[in-house]
Amino acid sequence: MSAETPAAAAPTGSDAAVDERDAAMTELLGIRSSIDNIDAALIHLLAERFKFTQQVGRLKARHGLPPSDTDREKRQIARLRSLAEDAHLDPAFAEKWFNFVVAEVIQHHEELASGTERP
Ligand SMILES: O=C(O)C(=O)C[C@]1(C(=O)O)C=C[C@@H](O)C=C1
Question: Which residues belong to the signal peptide in this entry (predicted)?
Answer without folding.
Answer: none
